[in-house]
Amino acid sequence: AANQMWGGRFAEGPDAIMTAINASIGFDKRLYAQDIAGSRAHAAMLAATGILTNKDAEAIGKGLLTVLSEIEGGNFPFRTDLEDIHMNVESRLKEIIGEPAGRLHTARSRNDQVAVDFRLWVRDQCDAAISGLTELMKAFLSQAEAGADWVMPGFTHLQTAQPVTWGHHMMAYVEMLARDRSRFADARARMNECPLGAAALAGTSFPIDRHATAQALGFDRPTANSLDSVSDRDFALEFLSASSICAMHLSRFAEELVIWSSAQFRFVRLSDKWTTGSSIMPQKKNPDAAELLRAKLGRILGATVALFTIMKGLALTYSKDMQEDKEQVFDAADTLMLALAAMTGMVTDMTANREVLAQAAASGFSTATDLADWLVRALGLPFREAHHVTGTLVALAESKGCDLPDLSLADMQSVHTGIRAEVFDVLGVENSVRSRTSYGGTAPEQVRGQVARWKAALA
Ligand code: ARG
């Protein structure tokens, strides 16, 4: 049988496989609340502008609430032959209220309808991402506050570089996550324009009030160009892009956790809640959650690339290609929210091994830069020469199988006669981190200042 929504010119119904490839109800049912909110705002506006009678608009508004409670109660008869959420809702509305249901679609098209539904949904996800990020930032802040002065090795190339503080390392993630939050906030602000009323693509001859529907749905204003309104998916792409960057940050900390929780490092202990055992090796405690978090970017970035590829080269305005937008965004959003929650739990529950961190901080000639700086400060050596002297001392220590602080003063003076006993003060890791007081540096006082600033900002 021909379709009841658009079947006027059709003699035959679709092939079963056509129905399967064409239908989006299997996934776009997730837009039901946004679809009903958009329709209610539209109906109220149609009444206020005299396009619909108050009586019809009231019947529509009430009927839509019945549909809403049916869906939320789990007893809504979703039908694949009705393609998508828009036609499922409208068709059910007709069963409930009869003839006035057919007037709801006046001055509207599924093209602006899906655009507004999806924007509302993505807007909510930006808010969810922002609150998930805020929780994760708080978890990193607590770690930073507790260990503002715990020394650990700082790495470049994953080779020991200079001692840093645990708090400083934790606060690096707070900065990254803060940028993520601002990307979602920024995207949210830009997407907050209402496409409803663009109709199919050209606008409508009915005297609609797009400012009223925009306001009713919490948008700042209506979109300004009807063609752009129905063909734009930038809001989804921005959400996916921000999600990808955020997931990339999570994957970096996940990798650090995998390394740090290994028996060779033992920098942190992950709680039982975020690890799993092995069915054959009884000693194992595997960092599965961290490994999965390391992987999730693959999925989110995949969705991002997919939607860019779908949108690339699409002539204006709406094409059915764009129906492929939703599953990508749904999956990326679900993945991101789960990842943020899992990372928050793991960071909250992890325990830094302060002694191991301190030992590791002191090994690997980590204070070589401090020694070179001392040669510049105390002896007036040019930095390049100081670098060379220090390198020679490192080689000497290495040949003796010891670290820099273990060399005797005589050893030191054999490389440079001017070296005095006070040099040993700068070779300790505690002094090293305490000395790095430049703004944004690793000194505990700097870290505490950053913690206080962020605590106030997040309170
Ligand atoms: N299910 C469609 C989508 O998700 C809704 C818009 C359909 N518009 C149309 N003219 N076929 O994109």
From TrEMBL:
Residue ranges constituting the Fumarate lyase N-terminal domain according to the UniProt record: 8-302
Cross-referenced InterPro entries: Arg_succ_lyase_C, Argininosuccinate_lyase, Fumarase/histidase_N, Fumarate_lyase_CS, Fumarate_lyase_fam, Fumarate_lyase_N, L-Aspartase-like
Alphabetized UniProt keyword annotations: Amino-acid biosynthesis, Arginine biosynthesis, Cytoplasm, Lyase
Cellular compartment(s): Cytoplasm
GO cellular component: cytosol
Ranges for domain Argininosuccinate lyase C-terminal: 365-433
Top enzyme category: lyase
Entry keyword annotation includes Cytoplasm: yes
Record pathway: Amino-acid biosynthesis; L-arginine biosynthesis; L-arginine from L-ornithine and carbamoyl phosphate: step 3/3
EC number of the protein: 4.3.2.1
The protein's name in its UniProt record: Argininosuccinate lyase
Organism: Paragemmobacter straminiformis
Lineage: Bacteria, Pseudomonadati, Pseudomonadota, Alphaproteobacteria, Rhodobacterales
